[in-house]
Amino acid sequence: MPSVLSSKKGVESAPFFLIVSAVIMIFTIATFYPPLSNWMMKMNDAAAIRETAKLRDAINEISSMGDVGSVEKIFVNLPAGYFIEVNELELKTYRKANFEAGMAQEDLITLKIDNKAKTSINPDSDDPNELFGQMTIELRYGEPSEENKKPFQIWVG
Q: 134 vs 44, 109, 137, CA distance in Å?
């Protein structure tokens, strides 16, 4: 049985097949990469909307308890680049694209909070209106007091 190196045909045709294989791989990557990145962005959008709905449900639940001493902790895990804006009567989720690229934010969903509940985020956090990343949020019913302020604490009243 002759070896590959001693066969002239195998040695002469190998570079041709390597080039053809590389061209096929380049066209395959160029064809499938954009839909894959779009799919990943849609998955992150869905995760951010799911976390916003979880937070809204927890706010509505603690406001329905109606007791000043009610406290509930909830873990929020938002994908990178996604933010939840806490307003008095709604939660707004949006995606901030790369700031370096000069792209603006894109609103994903706005969820209304129960009519009775009014929310305010603790002003001791970095941005008093936005939640982002992984965090444990403490929800408290009642009015925020000056002596009991902690980061990522949302008051529901």
A: 14, 19, 10
